[in-house]
């Protein structure tokens, strides 16, 4: 299972790639829901935290 210690501005990999072909997402908002932004086409999606925990594969890059 993926480690769940993600933070704001981390780049994460999801289990499924975005239709644009990129599978890198930046966490841009955290709360009950998590908003992530595709690093390929800048499309952003808001998903419930529990769903995000299930769909996140790994943290690619931690924020500074």
Find the structural class using helix and strand composition. mainly beta
Indicate the mean pLDDT.
Answer: 91
The domain count comes to 1
Gross morphology: globular
Note the beta-strand portion.
Answer: 35-45%
What string, H for helix and E for strand, traces the elements in order? EEEEHE
| Estimated helix fraction | 10-25%
Keywords:
five-stranded antiparallel beta sheet; DUF951; DUF951 domain-containing protein; 64 residues; 5 strands; mainly beta; 1 helix
Topology (elements, then pairings):
Layout: E1 11-14, E2 25-29, E3 33-38, E4 44-48, H1 49-55, E5 56-61
Protein name: DUF951 domain-containing protein
InterPro entries: DUF951
Organism: Halalkalibacillus sediminis
In short:
The chain has 64 residues and is mainly β.
Structural description of this entry:
By secondary structure, the protein is mainly beta. The protein has one domain (11-61). It contains one helix and five strands; from the N terminus they run E-E-E-E-H-E. It has one helix at residues 49-55; strands at 11-14, 25-29, 33-38, 44-48, 56-61. Strands 4-3-2-1-5 form a five-stranded antiparallel beta sheet. Strand 2 (25-29) and strand 3 form a beta hairpin. The chain is globular. The mean pLDDT is 91. This is DUF951 domain-containing protein. It comes from Halalkalibacillus sediminis. InterPro entries: DUF951. It holds the Pfam family DUF951.
């Amino acid at each position: 299972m993926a480690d769940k210690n993600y933070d704001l501005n981390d780049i994460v990999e999801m289990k499924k790639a975005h239709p644009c072909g990129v599978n890198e997402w930046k966490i841009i908002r955290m709360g009950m829901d998590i908003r992530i932004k595709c690093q390929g086409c800048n499309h952003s999606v808001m998903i419930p935290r529990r769903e995000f925990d299930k769909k996140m594969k790994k943290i690619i890059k931690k924020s500074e």
